[in-house]
Design a protein that fits this description.
This protein is of the alpha/beta class. It contains 7 helices and 9 strands.
């Protein structure tokens, strides 16, 4: 079965790779032989991850990318492909959230979240698709959505709207690009314990939320390893427009 999930010939661009899920995706894909492009705004953290991967014998290059800046997207991809070659897989992970009730969200809050999570992801995906089409290259785009693109919670309205948009963008791009041999799928994680939210899970609110999950636990970053390997490899070769949910049963509750 190891050959089925082989990514050793892939050049994979991971956005938001400086921390959290993006960093974990880069690590697991590299550990299985992929060359990884590490993209984010925080270059110091990227350099540390690049050094870590190279020290283990992997191939990695860090590029600064602000997905809210279209010119930055193109420049970063140019640099990545000059260093490692044509990107074959995009893991479209960068994103942010601002926690407020809808009536308290400002226009600036809305713009920040939508530009990073939806506009940026959309234009990076289309930039990669244009390059793949021009090269007549088979390609693979994995958009990182969220269970909150399918269900809702309070305090995160722009985020939930952006992730619902990512799911619809995944489906329409899958339809449009299938004829070019480019697959587009989405991974929708549930609640995952990361360095950004770790302290929250020991609070009364965090414990209450955990109890809502049928498996009665918060996911670990490594719980997404199997799903990202599936979607990034040819094991998912007959999947396009799919949304893979990894949430401990959260949406069932």
């Amino acid at each position: 079965m190891s050959g089925l999930f082989d990514v050793s010939k892939e050049i994979i661009l991971v956005t938001g790779a400086s921390q959290g899920l993006g960093r974990q995706f880069a690590r697991v894909l590299s550990a299985h032989g992929a060359a990884v492009v590490l993209a984010a705004r925080q270059t110091a953290k990227l350099k540390s991850l690049e050094d870590e991967i190279r020290a283990k014998g992997g191939r990695a290059v860090a590029v600064q990318m602000d997905v809210t800046d279209i010119a930055s997207i193109s420049k970063a991809v140019d640099g990545a492909e000059a260093a490692l070659g044509p990107v074959s897989v995009l893991v479209n992970n960068a994103g942010i959230a601002i926690e407020k009730l809808a009536v308290e969200q400002t226009e600036a809050d809305w713009d920040s979240v939508i530009n990073a999570n939806l506009k940026g992801a959309y234009f990076l995906a289309t930039e990669m698709a244009r390059r793949m089409i021009a090269r007549k290259q088979e390609g693979n785009i994995v958009n990182i959505a969220s269970v909150l693109g399918l269900g809702v919670m309070k305090f995160l309205s722009p985020y939930t709207i952006s992730k619902a948009g990512i799911i619809q963008a995944t489906k329409v791009m899958a339809l449009e690009l299938a004829g070019n041999r480019i697959r587009v799928n989405a991974l929708a994680p549930g609640y995952i314990d990361t360095e950004m939210n770790h302290d929250f899970w020991s609070t009364p609110s965090g414990e209450k939320l955990t109890k809502r999950i049928p498996q009665r636990r918060i996911g670990a970053e490594s719980d997404l390893d199997g799903a990202i390997m599936l979607l990034a490899s040819s094991a998912s070769r007959y999947m396009t427009g799919s949304v893979v949910t990894v949430d401990g049963g959260f949406l069932l509750a």
